Protein backbone atom coordinates (compact mmCIF):
# COMPACT_ATOMS: atom_id res chain seq x y z
CA UNK A 1 0.00 0.00 0.00
CA UNK A 2 1.27 3.50 -0.79
CA UNK A 3 0.28 7.18 -0.47
CA UNK A 4 -0.73 6.91 3.17
CA UNK A 5 -1.02 10.07 5.26
CA UNK A 6 -0.12 10.38 8.93
CA UNK A 7 -1.42 13.35 10.94
CA UNK A 8 -0.12 13.96 14.48
CA UNK A 9 -2.66 14.65 17.21
CA UNK A 10 -1.07 16.64 20.02
CA UNK A 11 -2.20 18.14 23.36
CA UNK A 12 -2.57 21.79 24.30
CA UNK A 13 -4.18 23.94 26.94
CA UNK A 14 -6.07 26.26 24.56
CA UNK A 15 -7.03 25.49 20.97
CA UNK A 16 -7.50 29.22 20.37
CA UNK A 17 -3.88 29.93 21.35
CA UNK A 18 -2.73 27.14 19.05
CA UNK A 19 -4.75 28.39 16.09
CA UNK A 20 -3.46 31.95 16.55
CA UNK A 21 0.15 30.77 16.82
CA UNK A 22 0.07 28.57 13.74
CA UNK A 23 -1.79 31.17 11.71
CA UNK A 24 1.13 33.49 12.49
CA UNK A 25 3.39 30.87 10.85
CA UNK A 26 1.27 30.77 7.70
CA UNK A 27 -1.04 27.88 8.57
CA UNK A 28 -4.78 27.95 7.95
CA UNK A 29 -7.36 26.70 10.41
CA UNK A 30 -9.30 23.93 8.69
CA UNK A 31 -11.52 22.69 11.52
CA UNK A 32 -12.50 23.74 15.04
CA UNK A 33 -14.89 22.39 17.64
CA UNK A 34 -15.60 23.08 21.30
CA UNK A 35 -17.93 20.18 22.16
CA UNK A 36 -17.82 17.38 23.07
CA UNK A 37 -14.11 18.13 23.35
CA UNK A 38 -11.93 21.06 22.17
CA UNK A 39 -10.23 20.21 18.88
CA UNK A 40 -8.54 22.28 16.16
CA UNK A 41 -6.82 21.44 12.86
CA UNK A 42 -4.32 23.61 11.00
CA UNK A 43 -2.69 23.14 7.62
CA UNK A 44 0.16 24.71 5.66
CA UNK A 45 0.46 23.20 2.19
CA UNK A 46 0.92 19.45 2.89
CA UNK A 47 1.65 19.82 6.62
CA UNK A 48 -1.37 18.98 8.77
CA UNK A 49 -1.35 19.28 12.56
CA UNK A 50 -4.26 18.46 14.87
CA UNK A 51 -4.57 19.47 18.53
CA UNK A 52 -6.91 18.54 21.35
CA UNK A 53 -7.53 20.86 24.29
CA UNK A 54 -7.00 20.00 27.97
CA UNK A 55 -7.61 23.05 30.21
CA UNK A 56 -5.43 21.68 33.04
CA UNK A 57 -2.57 20.71 30.71
CA UNK A 58 0.88 22.16 31.55
CA UNK A 59 2.82 22.96 28.33
CA UNK A 60 6.19 22.89 30.11
CA UNK A 61 5.53 19.24 31.01
CA UNK A 62 4.60 18.19 27.47
CA UNK A 63 6.24 15.23 25.78
CA UNK A 64 4.35 15.90 22.55
CA UNK A 65 6.56 15.84 19.46
CA UNK A 66 6.60 14.90 15.79
CA UNK A 67 8.97 15.06 12.82
CA UNK A 68 8.04 16.88 9.60
CA UNK A 69 10.29 16.19 6.60
CA UNK A 70 10.65 19.18 4.27
CA UNK A 71 12.72 19.88 1.13
CA UNK A 72 14.28 23.13 2.40
CA UNK A 73 14.56 23.91 6.11
CA UNK A 74 16.09 27.33 5.43
CA UNK A 75 13.22 28.59 3.28
CA UNK A 76 10.60 27.35 5.75
CA UNK A 77 12.46 28.82 8.72
CA UNK A 78 12.63 32.22 7.02
CA UNK A 79 8.88 32.12 6.30
CA UNK A 80 8.14 31.29 9.94
CA UNK A 81 10.59 33.96 11.12
CA UNK A 82 8.91 36.60 8.95
CA UNK A 83 5.58 35.72 10.55
CA UNK A 84 7.02 36.01 14.05
CA UNK A 85 8.68 39.34 13.32
CA UNK A 86 5.47 40.71 11.82
CA UNK A 87 3.45 39.67 14.88
CA UNK A 88 5.97 40.30 17.67
CA UNK A 89 8.69 42.49 16.19
CA UNK A 90 11.26 39.80 16.93
CA UNK A 91 11.97 36.09 16.77
CA UNK A 92 10.70 34.02 19.70
CA UNK A 93 13.91 32.35 20.93
CA UNK A 94 13.17 31.53 24.56
CA UNK A 95 10.35 30.23 26.70
CA UNK A 96 7.14 28.75 25.28
CA UNK A 97 6.50 29.26 22.41
CA UNK A 98 9.85 29.61 20.64
CA UNK A 99 11.79 28.45 17.57
CA UNK A 100 15.35 27.22 17.06
CA UNK A 101 17.43 27.91 13.95
CA UNK A 102 18.29 25.39 11.21
CA UNK A 103 21.47 23.53 12.04
CA UNK A 104 22.95 20.26 10.90
CA UNK A 105 22.35 17.45 13.39
CA UNK A 106 25.18 14.95 13.84
CA UNK A 107 22.62 12.54 15.33
CA UNK A 108 20.48 12.75 12.16
CA UNK A 109 23.01 12.00 9.41
CA UNK A 110 24.07 15.68 9.37
CA UNK A 111 20.70 16.70 7.95
CA UNK A 112 19.57 20.24 8.66
CA UNK A 113 16.78 20.71 11.17
CA UNK A 114 15.00 23.26 13.33
CA UNK A 115 12.26 23.01 15.92
CA UNK A 116 9.10 24.95 16.66
CA UNK A 117 8.04 24.66 20.29
CA UNK A 118 4.39 25.72 20.16
CA UNK A 119 2.12 27.12 22.92
CA UNK A 120 1.21 23.56 23.88
CA UNK A 121 4.87 22.74 24.56
CA UNK A 122 4.92 20.37 21.57
CA UNK A 123 8.21 20.03 19.69
CA UNK A 124 7.49 20.12 15.95
CA UNK A 125 10.81 19.05 14.42
CA UNK A 126 11.28 20.18 10.82
CA UNK A 127 14.04 18.12 9.19
CA UNK A 128 15.50 18.11 5.69
CA UNK A 129 14.25 15.14 3.71
CA UNK A 130 17.56 14.67 1.92
CA UNK A 131 21.22 15.52 2.32
CA UNK A 132 21.31 18.90 0.67
CA UNK A 133 22.78 22.04 2.27
CA UNK A 134 20.09 24.35 3.61
CA UNK A 135 20.13 27.92 2.33
CA UNK A 136 20.00 28.95 6.00
CA UNK A 137 23.43 27.49 6.65
CA UNK A 138 26.75 29.11 5.70
CA UNK A 139 27.90 28.64 2.12
CA UNK A 140 31.24 27.61 3.60
CA UNK A 141 31.44 25.12 6.41
CA UNK A 142 33.54 26.11 9.43
CA UNK A 143 37.11 24.90 9.44
CA UNK A 144 36.06 21.70 11.19
CA UNK A 145 38.34 22.02 14.19
CA UNK A 146 37.82 21.08 17.81
CA UNK A 147 35.40 23.95 18.44
CA UNK A 148 33.16 22.84 15.59
CA UNK A 149 33.13 19.29 16.93
CA UNK A 150 32.08 20.55 20.36
CA UNK A 151 29.47 22.84 18.82
CA UNK A 152 27.87 19.88 17.06
CA UNK A 153 27.74 17.96 20.33
CA UNK A 154 26.15 20.97 22.01
CA UNK A 155 23.52 21.22 19.25
CA UNK A 156 22.53 17.60 19.83
CA UNK A 157 22.01 18.29 23.52
CA UNK A 158 20.28 21.66 23.15
CA UNK A 159 18.31 21.43 19.92
CA UNK A 160 17.58 17.72 19.72
CA UNK A 161 17.25 16.72 23.39
CA UNK A 162 16.25 20.05 24.95
CA UNK A 163 19.04 19.87 27.55
CA UNK A 164 20.21 23.48 27.31
CA UNK A 165 22.20 23.21 30.54
CA UNK A 166 24.38 20.42 29.18
CA UNK A 167 24.76 22.27 25.87
CA UNK A 168 26.02 25.30 27.82
CA UNK A 169 28.54 23.20 29.72
CA UNK A 170 29.88 21.59 26.53
CA UNK A 171 30.23 24.88 24.70
CA UNK A 172 31.68 26.85 27.60
CA UNK A 173 34.41 24.25 28.04
CA UNK A 174 35.16 24.28 24.33
CA UNK A 175 35.26 28.08 24.11
CA UNK A 176 37.72 28.31 27.00
CA UNK A 177 39.93 25.64 25.44
CA UNK A 178 39.72 26.24 21.70
CA UNK A 179 38.58 29.77 20.88
CA UNK A 180 42.11 31.05 20.22
CA UNK A 181 42.84 28.34 17.65
CA UNK A 182 39.45 28.41 15.92
CA UNK A 183 38.89 29.93 12.50
CA UNK A 184 36.85 33.17 12.56
CA UNK A 185 33.72 31.62 11.06
CA UNK A 186 33.99 28.66 13.41
CA UNK A 187 34.21 30.98 16.42
CA UNK A 188 31.33 33.12 15.18
CA UNK A 189 29.05 30.07 14.89
CA UNK A 190 29.94 28.91 18.40
CA UNK A 191 29.39 32.34 19.97
CA UNK A 192 26.08 32.79 18.13
CA UNK A 193 24.80 29.48 19.48
CA UNK A 194 26.10 30.28 22.96
CA UNK A 195 24.20 33.59 22.89
CA UNK A 196 21.05 31.71 21.85
CA UNK A 197 21.51 29.25 24.71
CA UNK A 198 21.88 32.19 27.10
CA UNK A 199 18.54 33.54 25.87
CA UNK A 200 16.88 30.15 26.37
CA UNK A 201 18.20 29.90 29.94
CA UNK A 202 17.07 33.45 30.79
CA UNK A 203 20.64 34.72 31.09
CA UNK A 204 20.27 38.23 29.70
CA UNK A 205 23.76 39.26 30.80
CA UNK A 206 25.12 36.26 28.95
CA UNK A 207 23.23 37.19 25.78
CA UNK A 208 24.82 40.65 25.87
CA UNK A 209 28.29 39.28 26.61
CA UNK A 210 28.29 36.66 23.85
CA UNK A 211 26.78 39.06 21.32
CA UNK A 212 29.57 41.50 22.12
CA UNK A 213 32.20 38.78 21.69
CA UNK A 214 30.67 37.71 18.39
CA UNK A 215 30.75 41.32 17.21
CA UNK A 216 34.51 41.41 17.83
CA UNK A 217 35.29 38.40 15.62
CA UNK A 218 37.29 39.73 12.63
CA UNK A 219 35.62 38.74 9.35
CA UNK A 220 36.52 39.40 5.76
CA UNK A 221 33.86 40.57 3.31
CA UNK A 222 33.71 37.04 1.92
CA UNK A 223 33.23 35.58 5.40
CA UNK A 224 30.48 38.10 6.15
CA UNK A 225 28.67 36.97 3.02
CA UNK A 226 29.18 33.30 3.85
CA UNK A 227 27.86 33.74 7.39
CA UNK A 228 25.11 36.24 6.60
CA UNK A 229 22.42 34.09 8.23
CA UNK A 230 24.49 33.71 11.39
CA UNK A 231 24.95 37.48 11.55
CA UNK A 232 21.18 37.86 11.11
CA UNK A 233 20.69 35.51 14.07
CA UNK A 234 22.79 37.88 16.18
CA UNK A 235 20.49 40.76 15.20
CA UNK A 236 17.47 38.64 16.15
CA UNK A 237 18.97 37.96 19.57
CA UNK A 238 19.83 41.62 20.05
CA UNK A 239 16.18 42.49 19.34
CA UNK A 240 15.11 40.40 22.32
CA UNK A 241 17.15 42.69 24.59
CA UNK A 242 15.52 45.92 23.39
CA UNK A 243 12.59 45.64 25.79
Describe the structure.
This protein is of the alpha+beta class and 243 residues long. Among the domains are: 9-60, 2,3-Dihydroxybiphenyl 1,2-Dioxygenase, domain 1 (Roll); 138-243, Tetratricopeptide repeat domain (Serine Threonine Protein Phosphatase 5, Tetratricopeptide repeat), CATH 1.25.40.10. The chain has helices at 15-24, 73-88, 146-160, 164-178, 184-200, 204-215, 221-226, 228-239, and strands at 9-12, 28-33, 39-44, 47-53, 65-70, 98-99, 103-105, 111-117, 123-128. Helix 3 (146-160) runs antiparallel to helix 4, helix 3 runs parallel beside helix 5 and helix 5 packs antiparallel against helix 6.
Helix-strand blueprint:
Elements: E1 9-12, H1 15-24, E2 28-33, E3 39-44, E4 47-53, E5 65-70, H2 73-88, E6 98-99, E7 103-105, E8 111-117, E9 123-128, H3 146-160, H4 164-178, H5 184-200, H6 204-215, H7 221-226, H8 228-239
Parallel strand pairs: 1-4, 5-9
Antiparallel strand pairs: 2-3, 3-4, 6-8, 7-8, 8-9
Helix pairs in contact: 3-4, 3-5, 4-5, 5-6, 5-8
Average pLDDT, rounded to a whole number, is 92
In percent, how much strand structure appears in the residues?
Answer: 15-25%
Instruction: Name the poorly predicted regions.
Output: 134-143
CATH-level-2 architecture of the domain at 138-243: Alpha Horseshoe
Distance between the termini: 54 Å
Derived from helix and strand composition plus strand pairing, the structural class reads: alpha+beta
For the sheet with most strands, the description reads:
5 strands, mixed
CATH topology annotation of the domain at 138-243:
Serine Threonine Protein Phosphatase 5, Tetratricopeptide repeat
Outline, from the CA principal axes?
Answer: globular
* SSE ordering: EHEEEEHEEEEHHHHHH
Number of helices: 8
Query: Which class of the domain at 138-243 in CATH terms?
Result: Mainly Alpha
State Rg: 18 Å
Could you give me the name of the CATH homologous superfamily of the domain at 138-243?
Answer: Tetratricopeptide repeat domain
Estimate the helix proportion, in percent.
Answer: 40-55%
| Number of distinct beta strands | 9
Amino acid sequence: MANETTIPLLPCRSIDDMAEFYEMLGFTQTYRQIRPNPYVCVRREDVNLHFFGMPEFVPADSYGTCVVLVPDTGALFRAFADGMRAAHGKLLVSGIPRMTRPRKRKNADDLSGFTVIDPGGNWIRFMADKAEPSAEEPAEEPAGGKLTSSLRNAVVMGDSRGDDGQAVRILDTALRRDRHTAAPGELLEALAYRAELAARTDDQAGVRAFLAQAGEVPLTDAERAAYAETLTSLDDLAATLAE
